[in-house]
């Protein structure tokens, strides 16, 4: 099953908007429609200069060309499930990823980079740190618009205090097959939201709520936003979390960097009462995001051996029997 290359996920300009203005309300309407139907969209956010993520991407070839035993040092530093270094697997045969657990903390960023690239790269460290802060501002705008769309904006401050951010840099190796190869199999993200910036090598495909596969083709000024299962659960299913995959074609490696927002350990992911009624019965039991990740990590080999699609961890562990 291929994607419809004539379609692309929506593009929404979120630059320099002020809450309560006509421009904010127009963008919010576009954003919520995209979140409902696609669970994915392309955001323009001019507060982030293109030079910043491009400077990070320019360093990634050297980083990923390191020996595997060097990249594995990140696993000694990371404290997160699915943190650290992720190498090629049957699930992601062309995929590698390196994570920064706490990119808001410049000292921790420097510790990781110094472990991989002695004596480190101070400009790279500062760029990762600064990029994360600006990306989190974009995430805050998106979350606020979603909550306003649902009439639950009173939870916005609680959200800010209940999440943490991690940054991952990713490489998808160019395939040997000219027809294209799977870079990362079909899956859903388990976080609140993922915001990606990539070099101009396409490959990301998402499934819409009505079952159509479409490409997510970015422009140089775009950030690709993907809604995760934790936000889907928190909104009682109203925000759609899409299946997505990466299919690699051509002869150029694909590099990307992504900000991942997740709920802190101990925070109970639970839909607000005002989002639960007869028309929208409760879909998921309350859960701790960290425990969710640990169970997925424990069962990944068993359930993801062939394809992720028949297995939805959120439903498997926390679905409410209706």
UniProtKB/TrEMBL annotation:
Coiled-coil region: none
Database matches in PROSITE patterns: FE2OG_OXY (PS51471)
Every Fe2OG dioxygenase domain range: 163-266
Tree of life domain: Eukaryota
Entry keyword annotation includes Iron: yes
Keyword annotations: Iron, Metal-binding, Oxidoreductase
Matches recorded under InterPro entries: DIOX_N, IPNS-like_FE2OG_OXY, IPNS-like_sf, Iron_ascorbate_oxido_reductase, Oxoglu/Fe-dep_dioxygenase_dom
GO MF annotation terms: 2-oxoglutarate-dependent dioxygenase activity; metal ion binding
Function: 2-oxoglutarate-dependent dioxygenase essential for auxin catabolism and maintenance of auxin homeostasis in reproductive organs. Catalyzes the irreversible oxidation of indole-3-acetic acid (IAA) to the biologically inactive 2-oxoindole-3-acetic acid (OxIAA).
Similarity comment text for this entry: Belongs to the iron/ascorbate-dependent oxidoreductase family.
Protein name: 2-oxoglutarate-dependent dioxygenase DAO
């Amino acid at each position: 099953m291929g994607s419809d290359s004539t379609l692309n996920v929506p593009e929404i300009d979120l630059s320099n908007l002020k809450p309560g203005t006509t421009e904010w309300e127009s963008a919010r309407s576009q954003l919520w429609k995209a979140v409902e139907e696609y669970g994915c969209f392309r955001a323009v956010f001019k507060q982030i200069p293109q030079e910043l993520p491009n400077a990070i991407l320019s360093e990634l070839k050297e980083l990923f060309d390191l020996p595997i035993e060097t990249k594995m040092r990140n696993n000694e530093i990371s404290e997160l499930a699915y943190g650290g270094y992720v190498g090629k697997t049957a699930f992601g045969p062309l995929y590698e990823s390196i994570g920064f657990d706490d990119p808001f903390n410049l000292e921790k960023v420097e510790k990781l980079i110094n472990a991989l690239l002695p004596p480190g790269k101070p400009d790279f460290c500062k760029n990762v740190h600064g990029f994360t802060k600006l990306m989190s501002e974009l995430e805050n705008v998106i979350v606020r618009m979603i909550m306003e769309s649902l009439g639950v904006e009173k939870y916005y401050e609680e959200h800010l205090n209940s999440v943490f951010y991690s940054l991952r840099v990713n490489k998808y190796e160019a395939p040997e097959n000219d027809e294209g190869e799977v870079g990362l199999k079909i899956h859903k993200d388990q976080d609140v939201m993922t915001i990606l910036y990539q070099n101009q090598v396409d490959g990301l495909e998402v499934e819409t709520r009505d079952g159509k596969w479409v490409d997510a083709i970015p422009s140089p000024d775009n950030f690709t936003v993907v809604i995760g299962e934790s936000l889907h659960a928190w909104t009682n299913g109203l925000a759609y979390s899409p299946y997505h995959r990466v299919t690699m074609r051509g002869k150029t490696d694909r590099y990307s960097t992504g900000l991942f927002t997740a709920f802190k350990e101990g925070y109970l992911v639970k839909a607000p009462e005002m989002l639960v009624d007869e028309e929208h019965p409760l879909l998921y039991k309350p859960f701790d995001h960290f425990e969710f990740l640990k169970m997925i990590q424990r069962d990944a080999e068993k359930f993801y051996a062939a394809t992720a699609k028949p297995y939805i961890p959120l439903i498997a562990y926390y679905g409410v029997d209706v």
